[in-house]
Structure formats: C-alpha cells, structure tokens
Amino acid sequence: MIFKNMKKNGLILGAFALAATGLLVVTQFLTADRIEQQQRAELMGTLNTLIPEEMHSNDLFADCTLVTNPDVLGRSSPQPVYRARSTNGNTAIAIRTTAPNGYSGNIDMLVAINTNNKVMGVRVLQHRETPGLGDKIETRKSDWILSFTQQNIPAQESPRWEVRKDGGAFDQFTGATITPRAVINAVERTIIWANAQQESLFNAPSNCQQSGDSR
Amino acid sequence: MASAIKIWSFPGGVHPPERKTLANQTATATTELPEKVYVPVKQHIGAEGQLLVQPGDTVLRGQALTQPGMSGGLPVHAPSSGTVINIAEHTSNHPSGIPTLTITIKLDGKHESIEFTAVENPLEQSPQELIKYIREAGIAGLGGAAYPTAQKLSQTQNTELLIINGVECEPYIVSDDRLMREHAEEIVSGITILQSALQAQQTIVAIEDNKPEAIQAMRQAIESASIEAAVAVVPTKYPSGGEKQLIQLLTGKEVPSNGYPSDMGILMQNVGTAYAIHEAIYLGKPLMERIVTLTGEALQKPGTVWALLGTPVSHLLDSASLQASSKQKVIIGGPMMGYTISDLEVPVVKSTNCILCPTESELPATGHEMACIRCGQCEQVCPASLLPQQLYWYAKASDHDALKQHHLKDCIECGACAYVCPSEIPLVHYYRKAKAEIREELIEQQKADIARQRFEARQARLEREKQARLEKHKKAAEARQAALAARAAAAEADPTEQSTADTAANNGEKQSKVAAAIARAKAKNAAQAESATAEDDKKARVAEAVARAKAKKAAQAESATAEDDKKARVAEAVARAKAKKAAQAESATPEDDKAKQSSQQSDNAEAEKKRRVAAAVARAKAKKAEQQKQQNSVTTSERGDSESS
Amino acid sequence: MSFFIASSPHNHVRRNTQWVMQQVLLAMVPGVLAQVWIFGWGVLIQLAFAIVTAIVAESLFLAFRDKPIKPALRDNTAILTAALLAVSIPPLAPWWVIFIGVIFSIVVVKQVFGGVGQNIFNPAMAGYVLLLVSFPVQMTQWMPPAHLATFNLSFIDSLWLFFTQYTTDGFSVMQVTMVQLGQGIDAVSMATPLDHIRNQLSQGYTLSESLNSPIFGGLAGLGWQEVNMAYFLGGAYLVARRVITWHIPVALLGTLLVASGLGTTFAIDQLPGVNIHLLSGATMLGAFFIATDPVSAATSNKGKVIYAALIGVLVYVIRTWGGYPDAMAFAVLLANLCVPTIDYFSKPRPYGNVKAKESAE
Amino acid sequence: MSEIKTLSKNGLWENNPALVQLLGLCPLLAVTTTVTNALGLGLATLLVLVGSNITVSLVREWVPNEIRIPVFVIVIATFVTMIELLMNAFAYSLYLSLGIFIPLIVTNCAIIGRAEAYASKNPWHLAAYDGLAMGLGFGGVLVLLGAVREIIGQGTLFDGAELLLGEWAAALRIEVIQFDYPLLLAILPPGAFIGLGFLIAIKNGIDRLHAAKQEKQAVTKATRARVTGQT
Amino acid sequence: MSLLTGVFVVSIIALVFGLVLGFAAVRFKVEGDPLVDQIDEILPQTQCGQCGYPGCRPYAEAIANGDEINKCPPGGEATIQKLSELTGKEAKPLDEAHGVEDVKKVAYIREDECIGCTKCIQACPVDAIMGANKQMHTVIADECTGCDLCVDPCPVDCIDMIPIPTKAERWKWDLESIPVNVDTAPAASRQVEGV
Prior knowledge:
The complex is a heteropentamer.
Chain B: E1 29-30, E2 36-40, E3 50-51, E4 58-59, E5 66-67, E6 82-90, E7 100-107, H1 127-136, H2 149-155, E8 161-166, H3 175-198, E9 202-208, H4 212-225, E10 230-234, H5 243-251, E11 266-270, H6 271-283, E12 289-295, E13 303-308, H7 313-319, E14 331-332, E15 339-340, E16 354-356, H8 377-381, H9 388-396, H10 400-405, H11 416-420, H12 427-474, H13 476-492, H14 495-504, H15 510-533, H16 537-558, H17 565-583, H18 590-600, H19 607-630
Parallel strand pairs in B: 1-13, 8-9, 8-11, 9-10, 12-16
Antiparallel strand pairs in B: 2-7, 3-5, 4-6, 6-7, 12-13, 14-15, 14-16
Chain C: H1 17-39, H2 42-64, H3 70-74, H4 77-88, H5 95-111, H6 123-134, H7 136-139, H8 155-164, H9 173-182, H10 193-202, H11 207-210, E1 216-217, E2 220-221, H12 224-240, H13 247-266, H14 274-279, H15 283-290, H16 301-321, H17 328-345, H18 356-360
Chain D: H1 2-14, H2 25-31, H3 35-59, H4 68-90, H5 92-98, H6 109-117, H7 124-154, E1 156-157, H8 161-165, E2 174-175, H9 189-214
Antiparallel strand pairs in D: 1-2
C-alpha cells in the first residue's frame, strides 16, 4: 500500500517536472537569440544617443574593452569602454563610469567624448538618489544632465567644473548639491583621464563578450 | 514590638483625598429605634438559612429568625422586640436593588431581649465549639465581604499568622477607626478567642498611619491584656486594606491566583468581626447591630452610629439630617468601591459599614466618557499588576477568552484605575459587566452540557423504544400474556402503603413527604373515582382541579415547616410517581431499588438533586407505563432499561 | 425622591485628557517663542494656519463619520497634532505644505484609524514624513537663524511668503534666502547644522572642518541649540507636573547620549558629538513632546523605557547612516510599529500569578 | 450560464483577489507606480492565471491529492518562466521596468489559490473563465491603483506606454495635472499601501450602500423542524 | 549540455519529493473530524429546531457541511461570533427567517388548567416535564432549555414561556435596569407552600 502510493506519487510528480522543464528548455532555446538582440539594442539605444550613427561604422557593442581603474572609474570591478570608429579613423569613446559619492551611494553613468576634446554627452544608467531631489540627473526628470554636452575637456582639474555655488560653471538644482557635485566630479575625472588615454583605449583588444557582462 | 514587623509594599495604589475627619471627631452615637426593621434572610455569602418564624409571630431581641439549612448558611437574629408583619421580597441592599426575601418586623419599642448566655470559660473550649458559637451568633466578615466567619475559621488549618485588619483604607469611612478607639479592649478580647480557635502562632493588628488614636488605643489594650500580638502601622495608601494587598504588605507574599490566604496559613479578620466575636462569646449576644459611618457633606450631622441590622437607611439619614440636592447620591460603602442605592428603604445589613451622602461639588459625577488614549496610568496604579486598558478593550469587545488570558478574575475592583483615568472611563464597571457575562456564559455552558446529555439520552431511549416496539409486534401473543400477568399484579398492590414505605426511608424529608404522599394518594383516589365515570376532557380537568386543590390544602396544612415550595413539589411528585409505579407492579425492577436507595441518602446537599433525578426516573417510567396502557398493550420487563437518564 | 445611580469609583482625579493636552500645549510655549525669535514670524503663521486647518479637517471628517464633533474637538488632541507638525517644518514653507501635512495627519493617520486613541502612528510625525518624502525641496529649506541673517523679514512679508511665495516687494523665497546667505557666509544651501555636517562628512571633510562653518557656535548649531534648550525647559515643566513620566525623555536622551558618545570615541572627528546630537534638530521636541504621545507609545514604565531607547538608537543610526538629515520622525514611526510587541513583552506579572519556574521550586 | 455570471461577479467584485482576498500584494504594491507597469503586470498575471487554471483543470484527474500542491507550483512556475522569457524577447523595455516582479508571479497566492479552490474541481472551460475573471479583477485593481498613483505622484497617465505597446503608444501619454511639486509619497511604496487601503474602503462603502438599499426585503419565515415527533 | 542537466535534476528532485509525499500521506494520516463536535459545543443545546434541523447536533453537522452559521436564534450574535471564529466564515447577522434573539425563558405550566394529556411531555426534547396521563404536569425549571416546543402541542394552552427573573447573584451590572423607588408597601405575602 505504502510503496504503491509512493511509486505513484513519485512518478507523477517526476513526470510533471520533466514535462515542465522540457517545455522551458524549448522556450529558452527559441527565445535565446531574440533576447540577446534585445539586450544589445537597449545598450545601443543609449550609446547611439551619445554617439550618433554617422560618427561610426563599426559595431559599438562588439568593439568594447574592459578597463579597471577604481580611482577614476569609481569601481574596483572592470568597466566597459566602447570605441567608435568610422572610415576616417577613431571618432569617439563611451566609458562606463561611477560616481561613488552620491547622496545614496553609487551613480552609474555612461560618458562619451570625441576625439576633438569635446564631451559628446553623459547619461545616468542607474542610481538610488532621493526621489524628487537627486533624481533630476535622469533625463526623464530634468534636462540637467544635458548641460555636459559639447563642453570642452580641460587638461587637468579645473575650477570651472564645479557647481555654481562652489564657484563653478554648472547649475546645481534646487535642494540638492551633493548629487550634482558627485556627478560633475566623476564626469570631470573620467573625461580628463580618457582624453589622456585615448590612444591606448582605442588600441586595446575587444574583450567585453567573454566576460558575459554585456551591460 | 511593632517596630519588629517589616512592612513590605505592593505595586500601584492611589492617594485619594481621605476626608476622614468629617465623621471621626465624635463618639459613636446610638440611634432611636426605627418603627420597622427589614431583616434580609441572606446577608452573607453562601446559602440562606431556613425560616423559623412566620408572619404574626412576636419576636424578642436576639431571637434567631432563621437557622442554617442543609447546605450551610448563617442565621439572622431579631435586632429588637416586635411582631413579624411580613415575610416577602423587599428591595435589597445590593447595587442592583433586586428584591430579596426579607423579614419585616414592626418594633414594639420595648427592646426586650431574650436571655443572653455567655460561653463559660471560652478559652478552654475546643476550637470546634468556639466556631459553633460563632456560627450560631450569625457572625459574617464585617469588613464588607460578609463571608461567614465560622466557615472561614473552620477552613483554615495550621494558621501561622492571624491578621486583624484595622486598615480601613477607603476615604470617608471611619467605622473601624471609631470602634478601635472606643472598644479596643473588646476587640483584643475577641482576638484572644480567634487565637484560641485557630491556635495561631503569630498575630498582627494592621492599622494605617492616618489613625494615630486607634493605633494608640490598640497598643494599650494589647499591652494591658498582655497577649501575643503586635500592631503594624502601614502607610496610608489605597487599597492597602484589601485582603491580598495587606497580606503582601505584611508578609511580602502573594496569595496564589487560584488559592486562598488559608493555603498560606494566613487568616484575616476585620476588627469589627473581632468585636462581634467578643460580644458573642463573652456576652452571648448574636450579631444584631453594627457600627455605621454616616458621612458626606450633604449630611448636617455626620458621625458614626450603632445601627440595628435591618434599620432602613432612611431612618439613619434622617437622624443625620440629610440635605438632599437634585443629583444626590447615596452610596453604601466608600467612594472607591461603594455602590449607589436608589431606594432609601433598604436595610442596613451585616456588611454595611458606611453610608456616604456627598454633595455634587464634593464628588462630582463622572464626566463624558472619552476615548482611551493609552496613557497607561491605570496600569501604574493597579494593585494587582493587571493591564486595565487591555481589559477595557477586551471587555468592550466581549472577548472573553482574552479577558481570561489577561487575568480579569484577579481584578479586585478597587477602582484605582478608574480613579486616575484621564478619559474618565468607568473601567471597573466594564470589568464587572464582563465578569458577570463570563459567569453567565459558564452557567449557560453547563446548562447546555446537561441539555445535550438529556437530549442524547432521550434520543437513545426513543430509539430503544422503537426497537422494542418492533420486537413486540413480532411476539404479540407472548407479550399479551405478560400483560395479563402484570395487570394482575397491579391490582394487588396497595399504592398508599407503598408510598409510605418509600418515604419512611427518607429521614430528612420524612414529614413533608409523608404529608405530600397522603395528599397525593387522596388526590389520586378522587381523580380516579371521578374519571372512571367521566367521558370527556372537561370533566376530567374539573376532577383534576378539585383533587389538586385538596392536595394543596392538605400539603399546606402539613408542610408549614417545609423549606420551600420546590422541595415540597418535588417530594410530591416523587410520591406520586411512586404511587403510580406501584400500581404498575414494577417495583421489583432493580431501577426502582436504586431510586429508593438514592432517596435514602438525603443528608447531604446532593440529596436534593439525586432525589429529583430519582423522581424523574420514576416519573418517566410511570409515563411510559401510562402510554402503554393507553395503547392497550403490555409492559415488558426490558422496558426498565431505558431509565439511564 | 429618587437618587442618582452611578458605578464606583465615585471620586476621580481632576486631570482629564483635555487638561493633559492643554498642559502639553502650554509647555510648548517657550520652544515656540524661541523658534519665533530665531526663525521669524513664519513659525507663528504656520502654527495658526495648522491649528485652523486641523480643527476644520477634524470637524468635517467627524461629520462624515457621523460622530459627535464637540466632544472630540474638546480634547485638544487635534490642536496638539497641528502644533507639533507646524513647529517641525521650515517657517517659510508655502501654505499648501502644512495644509497637506495637517490633513494627512488628522484624516488619514488619526481619523481613518478610528480617531483618538486608535492611531498606531504619531499623527504629527506621520504627517511630517509624508511631507518630507514628498516635498524634500520645501521641507529642507530652513532659513538661517536670525543671528546670521542680514535682515529680518517683517510679519507682512512672512505672511506674503507663506501664501504666495513672494514678499510684498516681489522677492521669492529662494531670493530671500540667497540674499540672507550672500554675505560672507559659506555658501551652503539653507542647511540645518545636522544637514551641513552630513554634507561635509560625505564630501570627505572632517568633523572639525565642517564645524568651522559660521552656523555653529556655542554648544551646537546657532539658533538650534536655543530652540532645543527652550523645549527642554517646557519638557521639564511637564515632568515636574507629572503630565508625562520621566521614563521616555530620560531613556531617549540617555540612549542618544551613550550612542553619540561611543560614536565620537571610536570615530574621532568622523561623527558628530554628544552636544550636536542632543541640541540639534528635533531632539528635545521629540524626547519630551513627540515620543511621549501616549496613544502611540508603549504603556508600562518598562515598555516606555524600551520604546524610548529604541527611538534613541534609531535617531542615532538614521542621522549617521540614513538618507535624511534628521531622524526623529522616522525613529518615532518605526518605534510606533514596535509598540504592540514591546507592550506584549513588558507585561507586568499579575498579582498571585507566580511564574511557573518559581512555583516549581 | 449562471455559473459564468457567478464567476464574473466573484472575480471582478465580490471575491476580488486584490481588494477582498488581499492576495498578490507584493507585485500589487511594487509595480503600480504607473498605469503602464500595472497593465504589463496585470496582463502577465492574467496569462499565467488562465494558463495555469486550464492546465490544472485538465490534469486534475491524474493528480493524487497529496502531491497536488507541488504539481500546481510546477505548472505555475513553468508558465511564469515562459512568460518571462517571452517578455524578455519581445517586450524588452517593459521587462526591464517590471524587473524582478515577473518571477514573483510564481508566488502570487491569487494564482495558486484559484488552482486549489476552483480549477482543481471544475472542468477546463469554467476554470479558464474563472482565471480570466480573477485575472481581470486583479489586473483591474492594478491598473486603477496605478492610475491613481501616477496622477497624484506624477501628474500623468500612460507615461511610458510605448515600453509596453510600441512606439505608437507614446502618444497615449496624458498630462493630467501640471504639478510643480507632485506628491512623491504616492509613487513610493507607502503610497501604494495607503492607496490600496482607500480602494478597499471605497469598495466596502459601495457594498454597504448597496446592502442598505436592498435591506427592505420581506423576511420569509423558514420552516421550523420539530425535534420531537409524536412517539 | 547544462539545460538537459537541469531537466534531469529537477525531475529527480520531483521524483524524490513525490516518493516522500506518498510515504507521508499514508503514514501520517489523521482519522476523524472533530469539527462537528466543536460546533456542537458552541451551539446552545436548546434543541428548539428553529434552525430547521431536528436538534443542535444535526445543525452542527450541517454547518460542518457548509450550511450558514446564522440560523440559531437562541444562541444569538454571541454564538454566530464564536462559530465564525471556529469555521472562518463571515459573521453575518442572525437570519430573521429563523426567528429573533429573545431573553432567556422557561416553560411554565398553569397547573390548574393542565388536563394531563402528556402531549407536552412527548414534545420536550430534554425530558424536562414531569407528569403522567390525567395528572397535572410540572416543568423542571432548571432543566428547561426554553425551546417552547411544548407550547404548541398543548390542547388547552396552559403553557407559558416566562422570562427567567434576574437574581442579584446573576445581575449583569446593568445600571439602567435598576428599579427606581420600588414600592415598599407590603406586597403579596409570601406563600410558604408555593405559588
């Protein structure tokens, strides 16, 4: 009695599990390509807003190298750097960087510069700043982040690259100074460093895909 | 010696204005005799006694009006001489004012007494003897609870500590204060009796420190009587006079929640009780009067008086010149635990220690009940360390399980919580209601259980009868033969003799039962005689009514001393049932013997119930037999099985 | 004649809820005066507007609930809630801020939960938190204390600012504040001392560096220390009159003192010290007026100590590591949540119910 | 036919999973910051609910009582994972914004509750309809709460609809109120609790009004059983 | 491939769990359903039949099988509340179709009018009436549940349902019920023999 019941239950449950996981494997198999495409498209979307299509002919997503530089890029883990090249040669780079001293921790950004000493643009990828205060660094909430676009890259740290209250050229937004200050400092560090390291960054091998960290 | 006693403390407590000087400045007065006294038959906790008088009787001061019945109880005594004019329901000295059985005596003003005989050599009497005298004197705890003193004494074994409670912590009340000042020697003499009856190892007289004169008087009396007792002076705090709180104050121990002080070898008596014991033993006087505080600013002549038990409150208030205002409250007891009465004709009873008539400005009516703000002040003053506010929520929601979990039963209703409540919530009132509901629920549950058993037994019986009937139809011929035999036997039986024989075995109820049985037999004969010729219902009913009237008259004449109508009726029913049964010639069945046996054990309290059961059994049997007869069929011997209920 | 029937006890202390709340309001007077002196007329305007709003809101909602209005209003609890909220928010915050806060406190936090005595959260603090998370800009815009201001706003200007956000001369709050700050003061935004220290520490400055700001002086932040001391005075009055027991204030301040003392000992120059913690922000207001709200606090003395100590620890933790500068409101609300548990575990042992362990011996 | 009516009434109103049974609060509170998110999760839940109800109903004959719960869980988990994969593939941006809440549908008690309470006892077409009604009831509350929170907290409606429905839907965005300072609390988690509380209160209020209207129905005396017959 | 390993592992786990559950289901089976007893415990045992079932226990069984819990007028709101707690069903107000909550009553037979037909005795569900054919009957008040089932069968209508009078000991502290200024004139003298 007891063994019969055990056998019955075990087999039925096993069969269900088999069928269910089998179904999942099939679905996974069918959607895998599409999912990767989507992830790529997402990142490309952001990259493309910073580096317009006409500035590159290569695949930005694939032309990517990993750099580890905690002092400048704010993280002890490797951060990806995407290179834009056109038929005329190297045009721009987009660096993923992190401002470690936001009001509530890290602010992840994508900073793009071109080879002409100018900032192409900055976008915030992820942050945990106070809603209503620090979250004005998002394009959805405010245009503030666009004020970096087309700024000249200084050779070294410059007093211009501060919030207005600290005597710099950038507006702070109402009620919050820590967040913009952190963002400006991180962007400044990153662009000065990247500008100086342009050559080696462009020449580094593409190695992003191996790590699997496509974002 | 007093300094040797360590005074502990108890949690919580409040310090309401004492206002004791209103009444304790003058010596205790004696009042004029009232016109009538109302003596409630029951003035204590427990069963009521059996009446010894009836309307029209003349009684003397000190004459017992009741005697303890089978289930205990205390006697009450006539406080003065006069005529019993009525024994009826009269508004009770109880918060509900629900009428109780009360003996009204019209006093003749002569104040004639029976001869009081003192106990000789009381200190050489055995404890049992002393307790017997105390019971006969009708003494109940005079501190307020009115628990029969004799019962309390006999329940206590190996008393280590006898506490004489003269704390009197309620504001206003000064009865014990005055008594101690004026009669310290008598109290001490009463204490010696208590010591002797209890063989107590240690005695403490506890008095609050706001009664220096009483402390002084008691110390002197103890010294001059040179007895083993100490006076403990406790700090003034309400409710340090509560039994549990005082025990904690004097010993640091707590009375277990489900236990009694006697479990810890402690016994507490009020000073007034000690005084009453002295009167009873050394003077032979039963409890007939007590000291009552008349106080409050609405009285022009406040003070303490010796009041006869049964004196209407109105008489006392007249003597103290009550100036009643529109919202006048008359409070029996103190301001913290006393209750209001709406009818001044209620009598002073053994537990009435104070009548308080405050003016509106003195003790204003409670304001609008506001929402509880959970301030927790009630919790801080609760002497029982309960959570009054939680109890309040649960009481409001009628959540009885939660109330039990939060120890509602340990609430002593001292009123400290409601006294401090900033939202003016009548907390104690909620607890009392909840306690009453819980008690009611318990009673209902017990009733339901009995009903279920009876219902199930009945169902089972019906089922058996059905089976039996089927059986019977199968064996019709056999059954008919048995029926003939049974009927022959029935004809031979003499119902009167049978019932007399039955009741003779019953010692306790012999008289009334015989009377009832005779009456019943007469009634039955009459009914049978009439109904034999009568054809229709109406005639039968007339006959029945006649018989009934005759029976009633007969019973009335014989059972003047019967305890109550219920018993008489039950006895009657039993007799009737037996008579019927005899006619059925089934007396040989074992069940019947059982019924007889059970009716013999009539000495204890349970006898009543058993007899009733027996009667019901007999009745059921008779009924069944009756049915069978109507159907012109027979009773088989298996029938008897059904009487398991 | 018929006599009046009532249930015992027949006497009663003459200290009802109405009286208790009156006393608390009275005890707030020194603190409010100090705030007016330091932050200007705005405080009074907020207070008056808040009280009117509270009374109207409570009346309307009680009417909506079909409950008697008068007795509920007479207990003064709505006024106290409004007052506590009004003194907690920046004096020049626009009228709709306090309006929304008071409505939320009275209607949602108090009445929706069932009215006085039924709310699990402190209404004033719940309202404050709503405002803080919803309008961080307005709620962090504190004026510099009068000592540092270049000019004093007139009553009329304060009134105009309150209702229109512009002075009679057409300056906005922002402009007013900027002008106030323009002269020689370190260009910190309108930060309170706690805010300032937090900002500075997060930028990598040391404590002593951040204390160099002119907003500090005396024991702690200018202005704030006076306000805190004034509330301490009022609180002492409440304890002396036994309107509140000492348990909550002492346990709260004691815990905060120990925590901040330990903090400065183990992280020298990294964390603000005892003086800053005790005399900044809403410390004294919270310890004597907010945490002691009987409805949302624990009930037994033991429970009150645990409850207040929890608030003390939370205040320290949130001030040091949290996302907002001051922490009293959050700490009180979090402790409110723990009250049923605290009450459960701090139950006294009823008389005669000896613990099983003892009786087994 | 009346069964269908009962099922609709239960799912949408009387026994609404979100307002009455209070099931699936985790996704309910977490994703209802905007109508778009609410709609996305509502649709996902609806699909899983219908799918799992049909499947459970179809296999109910084969599943012994003691292993029915594991089987239900497997069925639901499979559906959820499939939907997550599909959403990942075909509505990637929505997938990003609904984030971790899609896998959490597995533990949405509303789904296993329906499987246990209804689908395991009824034929597949009724079970499917029950899933549909419950899913619509749940989704409806989700969308309603999302709308309230979005309006109060952000002043808009259908913000980000393009994430769910494609580029054309960007036009759906409505600026309802222009706030200088929106009530941020509404889009924070406490706002969801308070909002849901008010929705429940309103629902109960409507029920009470309805009941008050119907109160004046004549009471028909029920027949009393005679416990005791003539024996 | 890792996906297939996953399929395999999950299937094995399911198989094992199935075996365990199959074992547990047989091994730890609990017999009996005490619910009916618990419900019966709550019902007031008046056996009045107003619920439409012949007795309290049949109604308890019906509730256990899903019947409504608001059909017991003698139990009233308190019983509905307790049943709601026990069964988890919503506590609806008492169904008026079955009657309304009333004060507790006992049956009282006006003995002078009783003709001794025994019909009430047969009707009484708890055998609380004593008497025999052609003899006057009496209700044992303590055992009477107040179900009033005896009232209808009486051919001469001599049975009254009278409310149980409150005794001081069982008073529920209802201050409103205190009679103000009770007439103190001598009421009907006490009949020692009984009324």
